[in-house]
Design a protein that fits this description.
The structure is a homodimer. The first copy, chain A, is mostly helical. Chain A contains 11 helices and no strands. The radius of gyration of chain A is 23 Å and the shape is elongated. The two termini of chain A are 40 Å apart. The relative contact order of chain A is 0.12. The first copy, chain A, binds a DNA duplex through helix 1 and helix 4.
DNA sequence: AAATAGCACGAACGGTCGTTCTTTTAATTT
DNA sequence: AAATTAAAAGAACGACCGTTCGTGCTATTT
């Protein structure tokens, strides 16, 4: 029933506007970026809508509720982390080699600022720990996957004879995680790549301690120049920005 | 000009209520606890007022604005951290001994849950990093103090001949900080004291690597049974709860 | 050509937020 | 005893929040 007297009809505009046409993916990428900057709980639908240039109510064509949006944001971020860090690790050779690949992949992912404020999962995990729901379950699963990958590297190294069987694997995993996790924190706080280098050296110190057949006296600086070397090129632009730009969205 | 017809007069209650009488300190302790649970930016004046049983407007007798309240909260938390961790460290003997004391003090401060969700400074530092102001400056100063203390321990150890002069002090500080910081994160996430033990072992592994005159072959499990032992007693109740209770405030 | 379905809009809702103002009460000072 | 002061209450404000609703475009399907 078309009503020619409706308010909307009275204020009809030229009707030649581009009518942007957003998709779930474009919204989610902007939302992930915003959530990384301000925290998952601190994004408002108004801010998000303004960021991508659409109205608040328009968002409800894609997400039934705010909670569903948050879960979708976390899911998107986990997918990015998976592509950036976990997948490259799974493609690498087992053992210490894989450990070095995951280390470099994670630090590169920090250096390139795939997320504007460090690892997204680390940023939201503390916040979500006290707020159960779908989003919380997703990050818990991602954290489990992450720890399992590190543990797998150590056990593989033991099976291959690279690593002493006489260690507490859990302790080693803790120390490696400590290097990477703290690197994330300090790099965000200081924006100084030295924090990334120190994490690399810290992991290497742990590896030296548990490795078999490496002279424990003085081989603490080189030794990984070719295997994990090709990853040290000029950093491409941050993933989120790249994808968002490719869709013609101007975030700011 | 007493107005006997005022609304307030009409709903006058028995007027024998205790009229609690709060002070800045009592308000701040409850506020610190609330901020530790929900994040500094996520406390509302209404929640805080309800928590301590007074009205929102009553808070404005003590704090001119919300920002001032936030700064005061951070200042209070820093004072607690200082008393719990830094002061005991400064009283200890220099060098490795002091490093062990600060390590144990920090882990004990986590275990006793002085703050309900781990180290308050660590929790709010990321949040404040993107929100300049008085509160941000305070945590930045506290972090600097913390790093300076760890560095001081290492340098002292070198001067005393306990630690090899042939190391990069900054790298060692990074690794020690990594153990403690990650312990904080994982302990909050899992509520499992194993994370504290692993941090202690991790620090000890670093110390073993840089120490002079310690047999690097097999002394990786005991060796700190007496020096840092006396601190492993039954944990007293959390500081905040204790102080709040002593003032007769029932938080929940 | 007509009907349908998916996006996106503006307006409005009830609720909560930080803040201000006025008033009452209790304690202290004069 | 009167005056002053500080602590706290209570009501109200404008702004913003998530959400709903009715409507209008535009492209696809019938």
């Amino acid at each position: 029933m078309p009503n020619p007297l409706s308010k909307a009809n009275l204020q009809k505009k030229n009707a030649t506007q581009p009518k942007a046409q957003f998709g779930r993916a474009a919204i989610l990428l902007a939302a992930v970026k915003l959530a990384a900057l301000k925290g998952l709980a601190n994004i408002s639908l108004g801010d998000l809508a303004a960021e991508i240039g659409m109205s608040k109510s328009g968002l409800y064509a894609h997400f039934e509720t705010r909670e569903e949006l948050e879960a979708a944001i976390v899911e998107t971020a986990i997918t990015i982390l998976d592509q950036e860090v976990l997948q490259p690790a799974f493609k690498a050779r087992p053992g210490i080699e894989r450990l070095r690949v995951v280390t470099n992949a994670f630090l590169s992912y920090l250096e390139r600022k795939v997320f504007p404020r460090g690892c997204f999962i680390a940023a939201v995990s503390l916040e979500l720990e006290s707020r159960p729901g779908a989003a919380c379950d997703l990050v818990a699963g991602a954290l489990d996957q992450w720890v399992a990958l590190l543990r797998q590297c150590i056990v593989e190294g033991q099976d291959l004879g690279e690593i002493t069987p006489n260690i507490e694997v859990t302790q080693v995993v803790f120390e490696i995680q400590a290097m990477l996790f703290t690197s994330n924190f300090l790099f965000v706080m200081s924006d100084n790549v030295v924090q990334l280098t120190q994490a690399r050296a810290g992991v290497e110190n742990v590896v030296t301690r548990i490795a078999i057949g490496s002279d424990p006296k003085k081989n603490r600086s080189k030794k990984n120049e070719r295997r994990s070397g090709p990853r040290r090129k000029a950093a491409p632009p941050a993933l989120i920005d790249a994808v968002v730009a490719s869709r013609g969205i101007t975030p700011d």
